[in-house]
What we know:
Mean pLDDT: 86
Number of helices: 7
Radius of gyration: 16 Å
Shape: globular
CATH architecture: 3-Layer(aba) Sandwich
Order of helices and strands: HHHHEHEHEHEEEE
Number of domains: 1
Amino acid sequence: MIAIAHGVRSVEVIRAVAPYLDAEKEARKLENREAGDRDGVVVMPGAIDLVRALPADRWGVVTSGTHHLARARLKLAGIPSPKVMIAADDVVNGKPNPEPYLKGAKSLGLNAADCLVIEDAPAGIRAAHGAGMKVIALASTYPASALGEADFAVPKLAQIRVDLDAERQLRVTIG
């Protein structure tokens, strides 16, 4: 099930596996349960440090989850909600369609080609590339072998370093 569900909007997964159900109603119930579920949910090592290294106006979240679920998970992790968040309920076409990432870049006031995405799912990698963005794959939910379409891959988020130079240009290093 993870092969079709992770990185894709819940409503689309439900439509695919149970077309006889009211997909929107079932997706809302599922996301509400997930938002309240704290069992086994842990902060990914390096996430807080990475977010703190980024200027608030230069990063956002583009997720296949709803705003409700994303905010619940960010709060649980102690990560502030970003200025820009594009969620499943903001788009007509979810990942792997590039719409979510294009909307995210526009909301940040950036050209898509100037954006760097950190993704952990093949659908998200395809969406980011479809938007014309570079992608660092995080081998967490999927093994690195399943994320081969990315420009780079890392096993741990803590391997991504971000620095801001004198001209406020972000420099990203991996290692």
